[in-house]
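Tutorial handout. Part one gives the primary structure; part two gives the three-dimensional structure as tokens.
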Amino acid sequence: MPRDLDLPSRIYHLALRDEWQQARDGGAAYRRSTLGRSLEDEGYIHCSFANQVQAIADLVYRGRRDIVLLEIDPARLRAEVRVEALDGGEQAFPHIYAPLPVEAVVVATGVPVGADGRLIVETLLSHG
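Part two.
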């Protein structure tokens, strides 16, 4: 499948713990695009580069205590990955245009939450 040749060694996705565990434990591919939206709703799974994860955490997941950070190895994906800015956005994000196979996730880590409700993701990121 076509893949953006400039992808780093890792891309990231913030997931609800129960949804990730259900996919992992059931041996099924993960199908959530973003909070409240499925792959079928969006057409892709929304991911982020390391420098984008905190902004997404702040915007979408602030205050949630059930979030895991999925560290994805793009080389393990058999699907198309596009880096694109959608809906007039200024930043381009990596999007996976198929279900995410659980074997492409090399690390899944629970995200700690600060006293202010902000998810603390920086220490969990690889910058490769």
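Part three, for discussion. The radius of gyration is 14 Å. The chain has a mean pLDDT of 92.
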